[in-house]
């Protein structure tokens, strides 16, 4: 076992339903596992059909894990966004931009990739993961 590799866990984001960590930290790197639009208090998906609300909740879940791992949204180099519907891109992008403006004081937004794909739960319109690096 590598003593420099640690699992990141927080009750402020949904518990993983499978055999993976919410996040993994090794040195200055923190990888946040894909998060969805779940309320961490209930582990229930929120806002059926509303990709903007789901995107904001998903990003707040990512942020909670970043903070539990000693990082912030400012430290994110890359977000990967997975959407189920191409027509949801504009609403997701608006919510994403609102979140980044609020949480990245440097004004230098992280890099991002957006992929259209199927997701594990039908009610999920979006899933997002992040890679952060701290000093």
In brief, what are we looking at here?
With 135 residues, the chain is α+β, with helices and mostly antiparallel strands. The protein contains two helices and eight strands; from the N terminus they run βββββαβαββ.
Secondary structure elements and pairings:
Blueprint lengths: L4 E4 L14 E4 L2 E7 L2 E2 L4 E2 L5 H18 L7 E8 L5 H15 L7 E6 L9 E8 L2
Parallel strand pairs: 6-7
Antiparallel strand pairs: 1-2, 2-3, 3-8, 4-5, 6-8
Helix pairs in contact: 1-2
Descriptive overview:
- It comes from Actinospica durhamensis.
- With 135 residues, the chain is an alpha+beta fold.
- It is 24% helix and 30% strand.
- It has two helices and eight strands.
- It has helices spanning 51-68, 89-103, and strands at 5-8, 23-26, 29-35, 38-39, 44-45, 76-83, 111-116, 126-133.
- β4 (38-39) and β5 (44-45) form a beta hairpin.
- α1 packs parallel to α2 (89-103).
- The longest helix is centred in the middle third of the chain and has 18 residues, at 51-68.
- It is globular, with a radius of gyration of 14 Å.
Annotation keywords:
135 residues; alpha+beta; two-stranded antiparallel ribbon; 2 helices; 24% helix; globular
Instruction: State the separation between the terminal residues, measured CA to CA.
Output: 24 Å
Order of helices and strands: EEEEEHEHEE
Q: Based on CA inertia axes, which overall geometry fits? A: globular
pLDDT < 50 stretches = none
Mean pLDDT across the residues is 95
Instruction: Please report the total strand number as a whole number.
Output: 8
How many helical stretches?
A: 2
Proportion of helical residues: 10-25%
Structural class: alpha+beta
Largest sheet: 6 strands, mixed
Widest sheet, order of strands: 1-2-3-8-6-7
| Amount of beta strand | 25-35%
Using the CA coordinates, give the radius of gyration.
14 Å
């Amino acid at each position: 076992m590598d003593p420099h590799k640690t699992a990141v866990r927080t009750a402020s984001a949904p518990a993983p339903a499978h055999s993976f960590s919410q996040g993994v930290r090794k040195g200055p790197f923190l990888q946040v596992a894909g998060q969805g639009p779940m309320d961490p208090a209930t582990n229930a998906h929120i806002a059926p059909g509303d990709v903007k609300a789901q995107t904001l909740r998903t990003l707040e879940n990512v942020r909670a894990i970043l903070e539990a791992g000693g990082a912030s949204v400012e430290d994110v180099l890359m977000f990967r966004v997975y959407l189920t519907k191409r027509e949801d891109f504009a609403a997701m992008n608006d919510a994403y931009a609102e979140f980044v403006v609020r949480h990245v004081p440097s004004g230098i937004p992280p890099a991002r990739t957006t992929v259209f794909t199927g997701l594990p739960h039908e009610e999920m319109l979006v899933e997002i993961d992040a890679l952060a690096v701290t000093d």
